[in-house]
Amino acid sequence: MTVTWEESGWERVAPGVGRCRLPGWDCTAGLVVGADAVLLVDAGSGLGEGARLRTEAQALTGRRVTHLALTHPHFDHVLGAAAFAGAEVFGAVGIDTALSGRGREELRADALRHGLDRRVAEEAVDALVRPRHAVCGEWTLDLGGGRQVLLANVGPGHTAYDLAVLVPGDPEVVFCGDLVEESGEPQAGPDAVPSHWPAALDRLLELGGEDARYVPGHGAVVDAAFVRAQRDALAARFGVSQ
């Protein structure tokens, strides 16, 4: 038995496209429904949160999640990935560097610094799933019923491995990851590439255009004017020429 977006607590962004704001870090997870397949965008901060997303997605669609896109390798977006057994996992080329070896230990340490329970962090990092599919430029997913979704490697910017998800339609929807944040100032950690961040936002605007709805990694859905203003603010903040 399926439920509606409203009944589930998810926000409907466009026909067959929704998102929810997870507690704790106000991290966004997105859902795109096709006739044959279901795409989840980002997986939450632990196996429990990932399992919650899996259950809610199945209640909304009547089917399991078949594809998972990770917008960037930060703990609140990737540590729930192992809850989606059998899903085809996508990330920007090179993301394996941040999800294996020393990168895995840095991911664990970052989760603990931000207050994630140690047991939850260690369990999730130990089970961490690395993307099977590396997106170098663009990758089109056919979800069936005429629904195609474009995965675009638009980074570096917020991290070295930023992936955006464009869902064509009326309106078009762009899942931005943390390249765009609405609920606070964009966070530039030690893995950010500030000199390229404004260009990554230019690429988002090229993908979606003026009438798209832009879904940030944290906060409310925004429009092109918001993305453009954030782009200009980041360029000024980091001394990047306009």
Key features of this structure:
Metallo-B-lactamas, 12 strands, hydrolase activity, 30% helix, single chain, 26% strand, Metallo-beta-lactamase, Chain A, 242 residues, alpha/beta, 5-stranded mixed beta sheet
Please give the largest β-sheet. Answer: 7 strands, mixed
**How many whole angstroms does the radius of gyration measure?**
16 Å
Number of domains: 1
Q: Give the beta-strand count.
A: 12
Measured by DSSP, the beta-strand proportion falls in: 25-35%
Which runs of at least 5 residues are low in confidence (pLDDT < 50)? none
Look at the structure and give the CATH class: Alpha Beta
Mean pLDDT: 96
Per CATH, the superfamily is Ribonuclease Z/Hydroxyacylglutathione hydrolase-like
What order do the strands of the largest sheet run in, or round the barrel if closed?
Answer: 1-2-3-4-5-6-7
Shape by Cα distribution = globular
Walk me through what this model shows:
- This is Glyoxylase-like metal-dependent hydrolase (Beta-lactamase superfamily II).
- Residues 26-218 form the Metallo-beta-lactamase domain.
- Keywords: Hydrolase.
- GO terms for molecular function: hydrolase activity.
- There is one protein chain.
- The protein has 242 residues and is an alpha/beta fold.
- The chain has one domain (5-177): Ribonuclease Z/Hydroxyacylglutathione hydrolase-like (Metallo-beta-lactamase, Chain A, 4-Layer Sandwich), CATH 3.60.15.10.
- Helices cover 30% and strands 26% of the residues.
- The protein has 7 helices and 12 strands.
- The protein has helices spanning 5-8, 47-61, 75-78, 101-113, 118-126, 197-208, 224-238, and strands spanning 11-14, 17-21, 28-33, 38-41, 67-69, 88-92, 133-135, 138-144, 147-153, 163-167, 173-181, 213-218.
- The strands form 2 sheets. It has a 7-stranded mixed beta sheet, covered by helices on one side.
- Helix 2 (47-61) links the parallel strand 4 and strand 5.
- Helix 4 (101-113) runs antiparallel to helix 5 (118-126).
- The model has no long low-confidence stretch (mean pLDDT 96).
